[in-house]
Amino acid sequence: MNSPLIDQCLIEELANSDSEIRSNALEKLEEWIKNTTTKKAISEETLKIISKGLYYTLWMQDKALLHEDLCDRIVIIHDLFKRAQEQVSYYFCLLSIIDQNILSIDKWRINKFLMLVRRIFRNIFNYVSKKNWNRSVCQKYIDMIDINILNTEEIKFSNVMISHIVSVFMDEFDKALNVVPSKPEEQFLWYTPFLKALENKNTSDYIFERITKEIFGGILLIIEMENSDDAEIERSSYHFPIVHISDSLFNIAKSDNVKSKRRKVLYNMVEKFKLVEKKYKQ
């Protein structure tokens, strides 16, 4: 069965210089998706075309006050799709088109695209938390981060894009977990792509440093703050999988795949996790 095709004129209208034409095109796109996804699966190729049109819709929106609303509108299109694969592919296509252009986006426009990336991950966590962190639902997004972004064997995302994803991940994950907590073992699944990246020889030194600092250093910082005497600090409503993370970091550190310089960083991180583990159990 052939995948439904979208009208190229509609995509062109999404990038029109006239804001009213763009707004009408966005409404038409939403209706097209609603009607089409109930009948047939929308292919990744079509989702790439849609994502490109939406990229230029955001590009053409110069009014700063409307950036946030437009980002939110682009992001929640995800919820219109009836199939999990369509939803995941849609977000991957959006992230891909941003990555392809991120080094050429001027300083006046870059912030709205970085905002869109953050909102994508915010909605991922909001969506799966509403599904009570169902493992099969979560795994599709985890695989996207793992296989298609961090540890891909094909076309790689730029360090700039990966760095931004890493920087927003823990912040948005923490927010979602405080609203709908998940079990430590469920939570640990989300850290596995980053752990794999630490052992991956193809991971650049820059991304290695960003992951250790933003993801695992971020966890340590949250725990350290929560064990302080500051009464104003709001405590998390969930528990980190400290032992799982510590054991995984240790196994990676002793792996032959890891360079000596990175091994030292990882062992140091393991020691820090061992120390906070005692506080965490109190």
What is the structure about, briefly put?
Pfam families: Nop52. By secondary structure, the chain is mostly helical.
Instruction: Provide mean pLDDT, rounded.
Output: 94
Structural class: mainly alpha
What low-confidence regions span 5 or more consecutive residues with pLDDT below 50? none
Quickly count the helices.
12
Distance between the termini: 59 Å
> Largest sheet, if any?
none
Number of domains: 2
The proportion of residues forming helix, as a percent range, comes to over 70%
Q: How would you describe the shape?
A: elongated
Task: Name the helix and strand elements from N-terminus to C-terminus, one letter apiece.
Answer: HHHHHHHHHHHH
The number of strands is 0
C-alpha Rg (nearest Å): 20 Å
Instruction: Please report which band the strand proportion falls in: under 5%, 5-15%, 15-25%, 25-35%, 35-45% or over 45%.
Output: under 5%
InterPro entries: RRP1
Subcellular location: Nucleus
Pfam families: Nop52 (PF05997)
GO cellular component, one term: nucleus
Report on this model:
There is one protein chain. With 282 residues, the protein is mainly α. It has 2 domains: 1-130; 137-282, no CATH class. The chain contains 12 helices and no strands. The protein has helices at 8-14, 19-37, 44-60, 64-76, 84-101, 110-130, 135-150, 159-179, 184-199, 205-226, 242-253, 260-281. Helix 2 runs antiparallel to helix 3 (44-60) and helix 10 runs parallel beside helix 12. The longest helix has 22 residues, at 205-226. The protein is elongated. InterPro entries: RRP1. Belongs to the RRP1 family. Keywords: Nucleus, rRNA processing. Pfam families: Nop52. It is found in: Nucleus.
